[in-house]
Amino acid sequence: MPSTPRKIIHVDMDAFYASVEQRDDPSLRGKPVVVAWRGARSVVCAASYEARRFGVRSAMPAVRAERLCPQAIFVPPDFTRYKAVSRQVREIFGRHTDLIEPLSLDEAYLDVTTIHTGLPSATATAEAIRAAIREETQLTASAGVAPNKFLAKIASDWRKPDGQFVIRPHQIEAFLAPLAVGRLPGVGKVMEARLAALGITTVGDLRLRPEAELEQRFGRWGQRLRQLSLGIDDHPVQPDRPTLQVSAEDTFEHDLTLQDLAPHIRRLAEKTWAAHEREAQGEHGRLARTVVLKLKTSDFHTLTRSLTPSTRPTSAAELADIACALRDRVERPAHSRYRLVGVGLAGFVDADSFAAQSDLFADLLPG
């Protein structure tokens, strides 16, 4: 842990895209709003709290959202407006600290160990930020305050929407003990099931296991699990950290062959493309050129194949086509089976830089 305890705030706008739509169109207020294009290949960008009551969630296929909530009002995303509001919110953050790590248009970490405004505490700072957001944007945000990033992120979700929760250093172990292990970052459904098979269902259960046992079973990840169970996370807030890759992956209930993977690759490509679109519409407008296919075999070997095409993918369908084609570069017996597949985009560059490079290559081509 750092010698001087940090004071970290995680601010998360409430149902951001949907809330902007409801703010700007009063007829949508109080109604189930789904921000997404209609169509079989579309995914949900955001859902209002009224829609979430029906089980609608971000990154869900739009057709499934429509089945869950037939009365939902679908609104096509307008990232230009969302980006403008995000800049307003970022300006509010900047009044309090220079150490801001944006995670997306609607959430960020702030290190307020040193506070610019003279407010007495991180708690008061979070309250001031939320009040300014409400007054200046007519939107609400939730905040978590804690000594590190992972705890602050858990805390910001504790009293959503329009809430705030504080975890003080002396409260950490007692707060974490009853939580399901799935609340820890990096513990997905598969890992949660593996831990449950060992009798570990809560963070308190995990904390009781010797570190040597966890390391023997899970390698270095076992060490990380042990640290998280104790509330230890020394990752600093990193201002303007560039995105290196966006991806989506899935672990199957039953292992599949390469040829069986196509529909799963296409479904994951939709999710990855939605994340890429959010990055492209973010403050820096960054675009990706490299397609990555990740596979995990039935005996837990991880394989990756990547390709940087001459022209970058411009749709989820193109991304899926390239990812499916990358299967041909997997040199394993045809009967091999795979328990996980992932689709990613990497090689991010600023949109302006990408356009300049494209223009240069065009100028170099013979006329």
Walk me through the structure.
Strands 5-6-1-7-8 form a five-stranded mixed beta sheet. A four-stranded antiparallel beta sheet has the order 9-13-11-12, covered by helices on one side. It is an alpha+beta fold. The chain has 14 helices and 14 strands. It folds into four domains: 8-15 and 80-172, 2-Layer Sandwich (Alpha-Beta Plaits), CATH 3.30.70.270; 16-79, MutS, DNA mismatch repair protein, domain I (3-Layer(aba) Sandwich); 179-229, DNA polymerase, domain 1; 245-356, DNA polymerase, Y-family, little finger domain (Dna Ligase, domain 1), CATH 3.30.1490.100. The model is unreliable at 353-367 (pLDDT under 50).
Descriptors for this entry?
367 residues, 38% helix, globular, Alpha-Beta Plaits, DNA-directed DNA polymerase activity, DNA replication, 14 strands, MutS, DNA mismatch repair protein, domain I, 4 domains, four-stranded antiparallel beta sheet, alpha+beta, disordered C terminus, DNA polymerase, domain 1
Can I get a quick summary?
It is built from 14 helices and 14 strands. The chain has 367 residues and is an alpha+beta fold.
